């Protein structure tokens, strides 16, 4: 039976989750702070960690870091408020399995927990799986898009793929950088050789060298056997280094040597090994701007640069992506959602999708899971997303500073305050009224007056 560590500082919510998961047959250990969560890790074996994003003495990611520092690999799920989605999406790059937004929907939680335990990461069901393309009645493998940005992207992919150049793929989190790397590999002369993907964000400092270049038995504590590194695993093929900015300085030096001289030296070995590997790297930061990335390595990696557009910059591809993710979610969850309601479409259009394709995929999967019928309604969207969008579009124009009308100024201020408090109260109107020190009826009247939905 799977053993889950839950770290959540809201005791009531923690008790509800504990109860729910126990009923579903899981063993749960509940901790209320980062410190006690890390402590619990030392004395127990967990199969999964469920973390609140904001905790009293830190953030959930601190626990993830501690797990990694111990060289353990336990999948973790972050529970976050909708306002932290941007950060949560980033967290995935730091080794978090998935995130779900609060208020947590039990069915969604169960789905993500089971996926994490099965090791079935969204990231593992890669678009280009050959088995899928063989079946005619299954949804397409990926979306290419027809927007000008998509056309340019695919033009560049086709251009660089057959060469042996190193490629640096840049783009915001979740835009499909790994998909681009796989496309390049698939269209290259190395297509029949391995494609090995490493997320440098999840490598611990101590183990990164051995992971990439291998090690010799006994070269450090814990090196019980010889280990083949990923460079050798990728021989003849392509090595994809995601989030390359996370590699430490000394690993960068070794990587530069591997690229320049085409040799690697396993940790503890006194001989070098020749390697024939094409390296494709990805990042969502300005590598040179961080001051932590070697310039010589940067230029070596960046023989060709591809920038993957953000979802908001390829709006005309949006519908295709939405249809694609709906079809996949239907297939996976046994649902039959055929369309999104007009209201959902409007919200999707107004939203800026900071987590890009990954966020769209997650939001759609949640909607499909929660939609019993053919049309996905707004009720299946995260409440705070609906709230944020509905109220951003109808913001009352702030009276200009030169306008002395005191009533207009105080109304604009009041409206903003109500919106902020509603958001803080996670949309719970009784709680918001309490925080504002007015009764519910007055709050409703004011919401109506200011067009807050
Ligand atoms: N062209 C595409 N068609 C369909 N799905 C896609 C496409 N590109 C990416 N995806 C899906 O979007 C999600 C994010 O893609 P991917 O992991 O490649 O992004 P990324 O930019 O590498 O993210 P990160 O910056 O977090 O590493 C994945 O679930 C992937 O399957």
TrEMBL record:
**Residue intervals of the Response regulatory domain:** 3-117
Classification via InterPro entries: AAA+_ATPase, AAA_lid_NorR, CheY-like_superfamily, Homeodomain-like_sf, HTH_Fis, P-loop_NTPase, Sig_transdc_resp-reg_receiver, Sigma_54_int
Residues modified to 4-aspartylphosphate? 52
GO process terms (BP): phosphorelay signal transduction system; regulation of DNA-templated transcription
Q: Which CDD domains match?
A: AAA (cd00009)
Coiled-coil region(s): none
Q: Tell me which residues make up the Sigma-54 factor interaction domain.
A: 143-369
Identification of the protein by name: Two-component system, NtrC family, response regulator HydG
Lineage per the UniProt record: Bacteria, Pseudomonadati, Bacteroidota, Sphingobacteriia, Sphingobacteriales
